[in-house]
Amino acid sequence: MLKDLFKKQRKYATITMPSEQAKREIPEGIMQKCPKCGTIMYAKELEKNLKVCKACGYHFSMSAPERICATVDEGRFFEYDVDMLSEDPLGFPDYRKKLKSDMEKTNLNEAVVTGEGTIGGYPAVIGVMDSRFRMGSMGSVVGEKIARAAERAVTKRYPFILFSASGGARMQEGVLSLMQMAKTSAALERMHREKVLFISVLTNPTTGGVSASFASLGDINIAEPGALIGFAGRRVIEQTVRQKLPEDFQTAEFLLKHGQLDMVVPRTELREMLIRLLDLHSYGREHE
Ligand SMILES: [Zn+2]
């Protein structure tokens, strides 16, 4: 039809050359751009390097399944409490809807995955938070799964390794979220009394109620380079203390310098480091 022809022509005529901005945008999925140094690399290459930028060492965030695959032997992992689902105890607007959409998006039931596997042949209970699910926030289910994982570690006398990535307590569960800080801390205290090793690995970001409870309670606290770790946000603290904070405040490196961490370990060396630590602690266990 004549009318269609005109339409098409007009469309054709308005095509403009792609702007510099658009040219620099990368087709999703194939290429990835480092947010720190701007290097563009193949997504597959990046995955092979455990999602660490080869140019500058920037650590991209990892999902829980990716982290588990990179940590346990041959990706073999037995998951605990798979069917534990969050309720909406306060009837918080849209909470159920948001949970459902995060479940679909991540293919996970909650913001933490717990279970067991072996690392370098050493059995361990492992927990991994996933920041894609409600920003890795801690509600009742996250707290319960972590507490149960700690209890299983005590029963089995396996070390417990927990990877944190969290925005803190989950506001949609109000005070029940805050109670998880006490519950997880109590479970870890039992581990401590039973002399079972707990290694906390803090990844970007570990903030709020999670940094203020189990993430900081490791017998050994390890962080990934550049990870943001802190309780309150920078602006809140600056307003409260009325002082400008140093540039590297709340980074893994800053915390290491000030004695709040034991180690900052690049992700590409992390598995080896965990194996070394498990090895060092297994001797004592066998000879108890
Ligand atoms: Zn980079």
UniProtKB/TrEMBL annotation:
UniProt GO cellular component terms: acetyl-CoA carboxylase complex
In short, the EC number is 2.1.3.15
What the entry lists under PROSITE patterns is as follows:
COA_CT_NTER (PS50980)
Q: Which UniProt keywords apply?
A: ATP-binding, Cytoplasm, Fatty acid biosynthesis, Fatty acid metabolism, Lipid biosynthesis, Lipid metabolism, Metal-binding, Nucleotide-binding, Transferase, Zinc, Zinc-finger
Instruction: Cite the InterPro entries for this sequence.
Output: AcCoA_carboxyl_beta (IPR034733), Acetyl_CoA_COase_Trfase_b_su (IPR000438), ClpP/crotonase-like_dom_sf (IPR029045), COA_CT_N (IPR011762), Znf-ACC (IPR041010)
A GO molecular function held by the record: acetyl-CoA carboxylase activity
Main EC class of this protein? transferase
Q: Which residues bind Zn(2+)?
A: C34, C37, C53, C56
Cofactor: how bound:
Binds 1 zinc ion per subunit.
Q: Which parts of the sequence are C4-type zinc fingers? A: 34-56
UniProt cross-references to SUPFAM superfamilies, sorted A to Z: ClpP/crotonase
Tell me which Pfam families the record gives: Carboxyl_trans, Zn_ribbon_ACC
Where is the protein found, in the record's own terms? Cytoplasm
Named cofactor requirement(s): Zn(2+)
| NCBIfam families, sorted | accD (TIGR00515)
Q: What does this protein do?
A: Component of the acetyl coenzyme A carboxylase (ACC) complex. Biotin carboxylase (BC) catalyzes the carboxylation of biotin on its carrier protein (BCCP) and then the CO(2) group is transferred by the transcarboxylase to acetyl-CoA to form malonyl-CoA.
**HAMAP family, sorted:** AcetylCoA_CT_beta
The entry's family comment says:
Belongs to the AccD/PCCB family.
Which proteins does it associate with, and in what oligomeric form? Acetyl-CoA carboxylase is a heterohexamer composed of biotin carboxyl carrier protein (AccB), biotin carboxylase (AccC) and two subunits each of ACCase subunit alpha (AccA) and ACCase subunit beta (AccD).
Task: Report what the protein is called.
Answer: Acetyl-coenzyme A carboxylase carboxyl transferase subunit beta
